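Q: Fold this one first, please.
A: Sequence and structure below.
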Amino acid sequence: MTIYFANDSKKSWYGEAIGILILDATYPCIPGNVGNATTYDFPVRYKVVKGATIERLLTQRDPALVQPFIDAARELEAEGVKAITGACGFMALFQQEIRRSVGIPVFMSSLLQVPFIQQIITPGKNVAVITADATAITPDHFLNVGINPETPLILAGMENCPEFSESVLKEKGSLDSDKIEGEIVGVARQLVQKHPDIGAFLLECSDLPPYAAAVFKETHLPVFDFITMIKHVYTTLTPTPYSGFM
């Protein structure tokens, strides 16, 4: 018989290992998106960071957002999650401040995977990063997630792709997934044609994982994104017990 005890008298629910800080934005999050709970085969817990709009985070890079992010992260920790991620690669700006403010693992941006990817691909090959807006990303985004300034990255953005830009960056209220798939596949195709030294793709934006399979089909190269990172961390929090010998 297994007997369970409540380890926190203030907690009324259990089982959400991953907490997700999400932008204060309104646009469709389809399956595969970080912001769609059906993406995962395990429960997750969301927390909107009040006032963290796309404009304030991507364009303004407003340093005043750090406290709302910290407050939301602390709320998730108090609610019982075991690790905290983000729902926008540009949250890399606050990776260091947030991880210093809680007592559980924090992985705010898919860009955290770049050093790992660089170490596993063939020497001389480079990582291609497809971001939501290449004009908005700065050296600070890379530095805050441990990417050496000398790392030879290949960067491309989706800001000039009409459907993605209108649907996500400008929050028009609707989203044509087939059009966005065509747009990102086109971006990936152009990158491979221009840079034959690409060894892997990293989809920085949390809205792009639904199209990872299409990018792989087009390029036949490994594709990393927010979901590969979240699932990786989740497995470290819920290790499989092995027993017996055959």
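Q: Good. Now the second chain.
A: Here it is, same layout.
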Amino acid sequence: MTPLLVFVAALILSALVFPAAIGQLARARMGQQIREEGPVAHHGKAGTPTAGGVVFILVALVLYLAADRSLAGGFVLIALVLGGALGFIDDFSAIRGGRNLGLRARQKIVIQLATGALLGYLALRWGLTSQLVPLDGRHALGGWIILVSALAVAAGSNAFNLTDGSDGLAAGAGAITFGALALIAVLQHRPGAGLMPAILAGVLTGFLFYNLFPARLFMGDTGSLALGTAMVAAAITTGFLWYLPLLALVFVIETVSVIAQVASFKMTGKRIIRMSPLHNHFIVSGWRETPLALWFWTGSLVAAVLALALSRPGLAA
């Protein structure tokens, strides 16, 4: 099957499965816990079913077995499952604890680094170390892929998690990013490497039917950590790892806004924006969530076009 066909299949399948998932998660009392220090507008979201990322993993697994079964697809699927497992433990811990805390930050970062190192080791063993270097063609990372993958997974999964804080925002931006990775694989005449990114783009598009404001379902850490890890894995399989910071620019900006806010407050006692991550600044400034999501999607689309334009000579080589 082509990336376009699996995208459509994932979109339809996920759109049909999510209503049942909403009911099951509600009966399991998997309701979202809201941070007290977050935007006041978000307090009404408490109790909305979360951990919808479980569906991402199930649909990806079914379509991988039905239409993919490639080494590249398996690599991304492994990343999706590992990230999702950590996210589910975090979601479950937060819900059962009655507060939006879950695992400690140090615990998560250690597991994320270990996950990234494992993926880097698999990439080395499976011959997935060749990456496009901006303005310098394609080069193999060799054993360095283990360190680079560890750092990239920790950064990517946390960036996706930070961005997932406003209805539809992370899902739409993620769909664009995964869609671009699928297109990159096609432009390299390696459509097989684009199947799993296309599946995830389709699942996220289907998820938007239930995640746009007012959201009936959240992906939770189960989804955001799974997708952030899979995003890095898909960048590895398509040889696009060094371009990922540009391609995923919205996620990078969201993360930088948190780092800058914390650093500014610790050093000067002042905040540089009203609330971090950046999308919260706009929400507390009075923005509605749907227009906000549309602007962030536009940013993701522009970043994807720039990444494709800059990498085009290397993709054609």
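Q: Anything worth noting on the second one?
A: Strands lie at 130-132, 138-140.
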